[in-house]
Write a structure and sequence with these properties.
- Helices cover 69% and strands 0% of the residues.
- With 199 residues, the chain is mostly helical.
- The chain starts with 17 loop residues before the first helix and ends with a helix.
Length: 199
């Protein structure tokens, strides 16, 4: 469970911005991975010493959980920002797919996918956190598909939950394939064909 940043000790106010520190730590974990990110890396990128980091965020593991949640919040906010009230549900779904493909093509990949591979298999807290994030995204995609069905843009005989699961699996596979050897444009084209088959 992500540690809540509350309970500040009485005394001199902090001289740093917690959000900036968390973002800096997130970038370090994103760039190097959990295991390879050392305490020295974290103190250098945040500008804080070990005592200050641990006092605010707990140990390295708790800091990673907080950084992972921060990444998830930012990623979800940026992805859903492509949705337009004036566009059709299907157009919005396609826009989300395009944004996910663009983000997956970055050099660092997706921190959540990276963590699924590196950390989740042997870390129950990370696995639980990622399951929570995944459920949130699955519900959002399922809702968009249901809206497209109500608008007559996706055939009504399909189960929106199953379509959403298929798309989420495709997203995860795409993130891995783009980092490996397959061009992002080819991935996006295949996801477009998948959605076309629903209409």
């Amino acid at each position: 469970m992500v540690k809540t940043l509350t309970g500040r000790p009485v005394g001199r106010p902090r001289e740093f911005d917690e959000e900036q520190v968390l973002t800096a730590a997130m970038e370090a974990f994103w760039r190097k991975g959990y295991e390879a990110t050392s305490l020295v890396d974290l103190t250098e990128c945040t500008g804080l010493n070990k005592a200050s980091l641990y006092r605010v965020f707990g140990d390295k593991h708790q800091l990673f959980l907080a950084a992972l949640k921060n990444y998830s919040d930012i990623e979800f906010r940026e992805t859903t920002a492509v949705i337009s009230d004036s566009a059709s549900p299907l157009t919005n779904l396609r826009a989300v797919v395009r944004k996910v493909c663009e983000d997956a093509g970055s050099e660092k990949g997706c921190l959540m996918i990276n963590s699924m591979v590196e950390t989740a298999p042997h870390d129950a807290e990370v696995k639980q956190l990622l399951q929570t994030f995944g459920t949130h995204r699955l519900q959002a995609i399922e809702g968009m598909i249901a809206q497209a069905q109500a608008a007559g843009e996706i055939r009504p005989e399909f189960d929106p939950h199953k379509l959403a699961v298929s798309l989420m699996i495709a997203f995860a596979g795409s993130a891995a394939m783009i980092k490996g050897f397959m061009p992002g444009a080819q991935i996006e084209e295949n996801l477009k064909d998948m959605i076309d088959s629903w209409t």
